[in-house]
Specification:
Layout: E1 22-27, H1 41-51, E2 56-60, H2 70-85, E3 90-96, H3 98-110, E4 114-120, H4 134-139, E5 162-165, H5 201-213
Helix pairs in contact: 1-5, 2-3
Active site: 97, 170, 193
Function: Catalyzes the hydrolysis of complex carboxylic polyesters found in the cell wall of plants. Degrades cutin, a macromolecule that forms the structure of the plant cuticle.
Keywords: Disulfide bond, Hydrolase, Secreted, Serine esterase, Signal
């Protein structure tokens, strides 16, 4: 459960928790503890549960954050595990920093199974969702087929269901490929790379997710 390791881990899907209307699979940033991290993951998970009356499963991606692509592979496997057991659950992907890159890569294979995706401090913010990029699968270990460009049992990911949150002061945003950093902001914050827990991005992301999953009603 969220909070079992200082508020940094959640494993509802892998521990075969009760099926809920919505499941958030979150990939933390480089060096963050547990599997949810501390900058974005715990706050996003708890606020989404509040907004959807606790009708949410939470799962952190289990990977080493060493840029091997392991996070994307884990997201893909976890999404497939969830959909086989809870076919009616709506999948939401979230990622922060390197975790955002893992989300983009995973969407290349499971995009059709994902109802919404949100990223924070996203190095690939200049790519966005649905554009596709061979750089992603190559750099991240070949886990997917591009920046949310397709895949999944239901077809390609709908780019309108994805949103990037980048502070105008975050130099990591847009860093790859060829971005200038910060100028691709979709959020309202003006802090740095660690500002997302307090700059209003998380509540805005929750509102966006709720608008895409239909309130989480079963």
């Amino acid at each position: 459960m969220l909070g079992s390791l200082g508020g940094s881990s959640a494993s509802d899907i892998k521990e075969n928790g009760e099926c809920k209307s919505v499941a958030l699979i979150f990939a933390r940033g480089t060096g963050e503890p547990g599997n949810m991290g501390f900058v974005v993951g715990p706050g996003l998970g708890s606020q989404l549960k509040t907004a959807l009356n606790n009708d949410v499963m939470l799962q952190g991606a289990d990977y080493t954050t060493d840029f091997s692509g392991g996070g994307a592979k884990d997201i893909i496997a976890t999404t497939q595990q969830l959909k086989s057991r809870c076919p009616d659950t709506k999948v939401v992907l979230g990622g922060y920093s390197q975790g955002a890159m893992q989300v983009h890569d995973a969407l290349g294979q499971v995009g059709g199974d994902v109802a919404a995706a949100v990223t924070f401090g996203d190095p690939y913010s200049s790519v966005g969702f649905g554009g596709g990029s061979s750089l992603l699968s190559g750099f991240m270990g070949g886990a997917g087929s591009g920046a949310g460009s397709g895949g999944g049992s239901g077809g390609s990911f709908n780019a309108e269901n994805g949103k990037v949150f980048c502070s105008t002061g975050d130099f990591i945003c847009g860093l790859m490929p060829g971005g200038s950093g910060g100028s691709t902001s979709s959020g309202s914050g003006s802090g740095g790379h660690l500002s997302y827990s307090s700059d209003g991005s998380i509540p805005e992301a929750v509102k966006f997710i709720v608008s895409k999953v239909g309130g989480g009603a079963a």
